[in-house]
Write a structure and sequence with these properties.
Layout (H helix, E strand, L loop, with lengths): L1 H18 L12 H5 L7 E3 L2 E2 L1 H8 L22 E17 L6 E23 L2 E10 L8 E11 L9 E7 L55 E11 L4 E10 L8 E11 L8 E12 L2 E2 L15 E2 L2 E14 L4 E12 L11 E15 L2 E14 L4 E2 L7 E2 L6 E15 L2 E14 L9 E13 L1
Antiparallel strand pairs: 1-2, 3-4, 3-22, 4-5, 5-6, 6-7, 7-8, 8-9, 9-10, 10-11, 11-14, 12-13, 14-15, 15-16, 16-17, 17-20, 18-19, 20-21, 21-22
Length: 463
């Protein structure tokens, strides 16, 4: 880990020094910049993070209230499409991995060059007050994992119903309006742990699990990832009030990806003060999720000739998540500090051998500091604590059973630096360095704590 830290610090010093000697032209981000011929700083503090104006532009259905919003008023050569990918070098390691000799503890690591994936983005307006977003995405791991291709987003939204910004309806495959979207995260190699946490399943902060496949695990039928996009029907609205901006969203969430027959719901409300809370002022919010997860397989999926499909069926039991999100801007809005606090619970019927519901709390705090208009420094702390374990003891692969107290608690630290090398109205490229260290308590094959380290050095660009 010391070598990784040293490498990161040298790169950080180099980027900082470069930032004071080279200042590139700042024009616009692709797609919408080409459409409106505006500067990228109108919508972004640092790509892909939105500022207050960019968030309002998104909430308004990618509209500025002008005739140029309409596709019929665009040059026939214009098409609303952009590409984004992140390329570079990634290193990941994990300690307390079971060696070739049973019971022998060793360390494991992987590294590689390549791409973390690619997004093809198309967004805009189909007509006045009808907006859309389509994002086919290819995901990959520099550490040797298989490449996958999927549809990350595909939705249409009807805006300003009855001429009111408080009434907008979206349907399709989209995010849940979670407090801080991972799809706009400035750490493409390190996820927000709380968004992907499942009780009993060891959390790995790396894109590709480089370590021990025989780590302790408690079977959990819950496969719902709060941070991922879902099938949703969303009613949302926003308005300027005497304090700042009020915003709400009500989401019906399909659980077809788990094969169930029930629909969950998610609520999120925010209020800002002295600005929008993204790049100025302060913002606070509350959210609540109730997601039914099936526990019984359907009869047609249990025939011997047809392998049973995981989690397909009925007798759904709830997964709940609720909490608050806060964001504030300081030092003349150069410093943005934001975070999430979440409480979660899984019904015991979802967990094999459980005698009690699984309960936990966690979240993250992240600070983004714009040292110069082109240099952003980032630090984030992730934490998850289990308050009620579903089982009293866990049995390691090697050794006697141990108490489940503290099992799968997570602590993580992420440092990153981003510097804009090129920005114009056709594309942009950012140099990016990122270092993450995450520790999972008692998840190794012998019941010891397991540490995951990851380093990414590369470039994040869009065209």
């Amino acid at each position: 880990m010391r070598k990784l830290t040293t490498s990161f610090l040298f790169l950080l010093i180099g980027i900082c020094g470069f930032s004071f000697t080279y200042v590139p032209d700042a024009l616009a981000i692709p797609a919408f910049a080409r459409k409106y011929d505006v500067s990228c700083v109108m919508c972004h503090t640092a790509f892909p993070k939105l500022n207050d104006f960019g968030n309002n532009f998104r909430d308004n259905g990618y509209q500025m209230g002008a005739d140029s919003d309409l596709p019929t008023n665009q040059d026939k050569g214009y098409f609303p499409i952009a590409f984004r990918t992140t390329v570079g070098y990634e290193y990941a390691s994990q300690n307390h991995v079971q060696g070739i000799v049973t019971g022998n503890s060793t360390d494991n690591y992987s590294s590689g060059l390549g791409s973390l994936g690619m997004d093809i983005l198309s967004a805009g307006t189909l007509d006045r007050d009808i907006s859309f977003l389509v994002v086919p995405t290819g995901e990959n791991s520099l550490l040797g994992g298989p490449a996958t291709f999927s549809l990350e987003s595909a939705w249409v939204r009807f805006d300003n119903l009855y001429d009111s910004p408080m009434l907008n309806v979206k349907i399709g495959y989209s995010d849940l309006d979670i407090p801080f979207s991972e799809h706009r995260s400035l750490t493409p190699s390190s996820k927000y742990a709380i968004y992907h946490y499942i009780p009993g399943v060891p959390y790995n902060s790396n894109d590709f699990p480089v370590g021990d496949s025989t780590s302790i695990a408690v079977a959990n039928k819950d496969t719902f990832a709060f941070g991922n996009h879902q099938g949703v029907l969303q009613l949302m609205g926003h308005r300027v009030d005497p304090v700042g901006i009020f915003r709400y969203s009500v989401n019906l969430v399909s659980n077809n990806q788990m094969g169930g027959h029930d629909t969950g719901y998610y609520l999120h409300v925010t209020q800002s003060m002295s600005g929008g809370g993204y790049s100025s002022g302060y913002r606070g919010g509350l959210f609540y999720l109730n997601m039914p997860i099936p526990t019984v397989s359907d009869t047609q999926n249990t025939a011997a000739t047809t392998p049973a499909l995981a989690n397909v069926g009925s007798a759904a039991k709830p997964v709940t998540k609720y909490g608050l999100d806060l964001s504030g801007n300081f030092l003349n809005s150069k410093l943005n500090v934001f975070g999430v606090y979440m409480i979660g619970q899984n019904a015991k019927e979802l967990i094999t051998g459980a005698t009690d519901d699984a309960k936990f709390w966690g979240g993250f705090v992240e600070a983004n500091y714009m040292a110069t208009p082109k240099l952003l420094l980032l630090a984030r702390y992730d934490v998850i604590k289990n308050t009620t374990q579903p089982v009293a003891t866990i049995t390691p692969v090697v050794g006697p059973a141990i108490s489940s107290d503290g099992y799968n608690d997570v602590n993580g630290m992420t440092l990153a630096a981003r510097y804009a090398l090129v920005i114009h109205n056709r594309g942009e490229i950012w140099a990016h360095s990122e270092l993450n260290e995450t520790t999972n308590k008692k998840t190794a094959f012998d019941g010891s704590d397991q540490k995951n380290d990851a380093l990414f050095l590369g470039f994040d660009f869009a065209y």
